[in-house]
Every structure is written in C-alpha cells, then in structure tokens.
Design a protein that fits this description.
By secondary structure, the chain is an all-alpha fold. It has four helices and no strands. The N and C termini lie far apart (77 Å).
Amino acid sequence: MELSREQYDRIKDCLPRQRGNVRIGNFVLLNALLYALEHGCKWRGLPKAFGRWHTIYTRLNRWSKKGVIERVFTRLQEEQILSIKIEVVSLDSTSIKVHPDGTGARKKTGRNPLARAGAVGTPRFIWCPRLLATP
C-alpha cells in the first residue's frame, strides 16, 4: 500500500496545512502510516526513507487526537483509493502470557535481609502462623 501523487492530490484537502520548517511532508507521512499498517511493524521499524520514526509518530498521534486520521481514511474509501476492513481484536490474559517479572512473584536475589543478625529496617516478610489442628 503506497499512495501515488495523483491519489494524494485527491485527498490532500482534508489534511491540515503545513506551517513552518517541516522536514517530513504529509505525502511521506501518509505513506509511512500505510507502510506500518501493511507490515504491522513497530514505529522504530520504519525504513529510514520515511525519516525519523519519532517525528512520524508524534504527528500521527496529534492527527488522531484531532480526528484527521479518521477523515483521511474515510476519504480514501470514498475516493476508492483503498478499501480497508477494520477489525477489533481483544486480548486477555488467557491468550497472552505474562513475563515472570510482571506476575508479582518474588525476585530471585542472592541476599536475604532477615538471615543477617543485624538487619536494619522493617522486615520484608510477615510470618503468619496458622493453626492446623486443635490440641
């Protein structure tokens, strides 16, 4: 998916006007967005030909908050330049495994502050005795 200049000229009136010293034009920015959507890459994975990934991300983030991205994709579909099927995907903990550090488990460290005789500070572990059977 890449826009040609003719296709871009048909939709450029729904984009904000560029002001100031802008290194990346709207044409290149839209092609970078389409590249990321097509390939499913991270922002850092964009080719260097599009420019700095952070600049692209920042401008697209601003555009999405202002509703520009929605207008652009609506216009792309109205002009029959692209046909896009939007799907919603929901992921939960049954399909995504959590890294062991994110589960709240104790960290494996070599030092144990309670094992030392002169441990300073509050204890890190609270021992709660349970009564299993009555005598």
